[in-house]
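Two quick folds needed for the group meeting slides. Do the first one here.
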Amino acid sequence: MEKDVLSPQRILIADADKVWLGICARTLTAEGYLVRTTEDGEHAHRQILSESFDLIIACNSLPHSSGFELLKRVRTATLIKNTPFILTCVDDNGELHSKAVEAGADDYLLKPVEPQMMKLRVNTILSRTKRMDALGEATYIGRFLPKHFSDILQLVNTTKRNGLMRVVRGPTLTQLWFKNGEVKFARDDSVEGAQAIFNLVRATNGRFEFIDCEPLEKENINKPQMFLLLEFSRKLDTYNASRKVNLKREFAAEADRLEKLVNAGADKVLGEVVENCRYLVTEGQEALNTEDDVERAEAARVKLHETIEWMTVRESSVSSSNTAARPCARNAKGY
């Protein structure tokens, strides 16, 4: 396969077996890839956050953090979650393979792996990725969650990127301009400066994209990056604490509405829908009380509210139809 000599694709191999690690590294280096190696799972995770890799190959039997745990951490990290990942394993008990696929592994190999087979798998995955992700080198797109914002800032800072990150939540647009990995200009629809960054604590279920481009000439952020991270985390904790109180109140109100519908006979006609609503109430309360997951609770509350609204409209429509039909029935009997 053809290689770009000036910009070789980068591969990280994490494996505690020094012999196999050396063989794999030499095989892929001979193919023209830039290969980094490590024998420790935690060190591999630090390398992934501090460097840019086109492919990760990790053995499940790694000290301090297994290859499977590393895979799950990569798939939940916003800006690197789409990085191709090959998980290798010495002994499969029949369960790890399916779990690896469900967790997002691009390939799963039982060791020992012949060098030619490893080379074929790597070439296939990276060729496919390069064809499908021509835009991906310049643009990151994904769901925006406030709890992951610090991870995004730290990753952009570590890689010293220049560009624009846009966060869309409903009708509101926030723009963050980066220079050498640090936010230098920020604004949303109402304010400019650091406050526009802090307003993102309310950006649950937003969407974001990061585009590599020249930095903006003007600046309105003069605070250190660490200050922005710490202040954002503090404001997010305060907002979540307030939101938890409101969500508990809202769940209680929705539960009351549900019981009124049940008393009116909704469970006789819409039994499955009623049970689903009760499940959403339980799920939301567990997310708040057990997991402290405000965003999951908010998603459950929105779904619960929409379902109860639909049930209310349907119940009202059925009741109106019955009321209109009763006089006709009486007239038909001659009353």
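Then this one, please, same format:
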Amino acid sequence: ELLFGYHLSLEEHCPEKAAATMVDLVAIRQRGRCAYQPIAAHLPKISDKDMELWKFCDEIKQVDDKWYSGDDAIKAGDPKTFEMLARSARRLDKDGNPVGRSFLGAFKADVDNLGLIFSTGMHNRLSLSRFASLSRMLNHFFSEELVRWIETDWPNLYVIFAGGDDLFLLGPWSDLVTFAAEFNQRFRAWVAERPDITISAGISVHHPGVPVHAIAAAAEDALEESKGHSADKGEESSGQSKNAVTMFGVTCSWSEFSTLKEQGDKILGWLDEQIIPRALASRLLNYSAMLREFEAGKIEKGICLSHMRYDFARNVNEKKLPDDTVRAEVLGLQLNRPLLRNIRLPVSYALYRTRYDH
């Protein structure tokens, strides 16, 4: 006998007479006869495609019948080192050569205001079963659904931990940029688009030789910046704090992050097509910093606006502009104040993706 008139009975077969008043407890997926507690884990492994690319780039050497990365013998199916994960951040240029910085990314995220959700989110309907159901469904998303998705679509992401209401991943920094936006969309769908159940994240970028504890601390600092974010009026969660992501020192809402990522891809294309030079893209970082100071009250910093206009007129290669739409986007960049304030994220993304490792 349990509480409130309920009884528990363990039966190998369901008695037909009692079927209408019984609940059949089954595993979410077949695990045998025992209960289980999922432990989220995914370890990226070397693929045949990785081996072929490293051979082409002369990054691994063959001795007898074995291939070596440095002093270590490797083969397809072996776990990837952090350096190998960082290499996977590169893309291939038009000649098939890898381009982009071989950096490792760290992604840390957790659910916002979880204590408030549990304490007041159910109003006067709080019960042990509802409390347990909410806890289990959040844990199931992080420890089961998320890991299965990573195994299928993001095999280069290393799951350090995932469960409860948070996660910590390592992987190619460029993969994590795209993963982050899709991750938030999946979480929003999981909570049925409830406006008060949100998540915040931090992304940090590192050389693969940096100690893991330093990487984790940087990702945690970025997450804390996101937790301090306050939405501006007119955003999807007007007036609500948190619900944000931080990368390259820029903290923004998830919708802004997706927009900045798209802008970064555009700038990357303009760099590849030599419509704008890398030096001009780099100077946009300084113009952005000066614009922020100008808007904060330092009137003398307003000179950045005229300098930027002259810089664009002198250095944008209008002969390579394919059409009027691209021309308007490129030249309009200097007039887009909201974008210029956060230009560090898309410009850094584009520059990191165009630099060659030396």
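Slide caption for protein two: The CA atoms of residues 268 and 350 lie 5 Å apart.
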